[in-house]
Amino acid sequence: MTEASPSSPAPPAPAAAASAATSESDLDWVYVKLDPDNTGSIPVDEFYQFITQHEPARQCVEHTARYILGLFCRTQPGRLTRSELAAYISLCRNGTREDQYGLIFQDAGRRWPGWLARDELVRLIEDKYQQVLKPDFEDIFDNCDEDMDGRLTLAEFIKFIGIYEL
């Protein structure tokens, strides 16, 4: 990235600042704001605060935006490189709800690829979302587990998320 002064590049329109930051100039603008020391990565927490001030968090499912952001930090935990940020923004702008939940599903369901076990879902809710299980967790899980095998497919997981309101 070329060195940029705080006054350049010119900022994009507010909604484009993060949600449409796929062009190089838009990414430059975000990095000038959030990486003034030109380290090559930005803190996830600062970026999350930035996007929630500019409304694009709504383009990713709001309650999963922070969790999904964390999944893109592959180079350095808690920080996003330009390419990681571009991939996140692409998912938010172009990905479906299934694409977004699919990332969470893959991350949480490591024991059996393509399935999410009951205990993995409990860990997801308690550890990643930092929520206490709702009293009706078991009933909702059983309702969504169509073949009653004790684990959810992606389609069943998406159904669960809609009912459980994570």
UniProtKB/TrEMBL annotation:
Q: Name one GO molecular function term.
A: calcium ion binding
Could you tell me which residue ranges the EF-hand domain spans?
Answer: 22-57, 132-166
Organism ancestry: Eukaryota, Metazoa, Spiralia, Lophotrochozoa, Platyhelminthes
The UniProt keywords, alphabetically, are: Calcium
Protein name per the record: EF-hand domain-containing protein
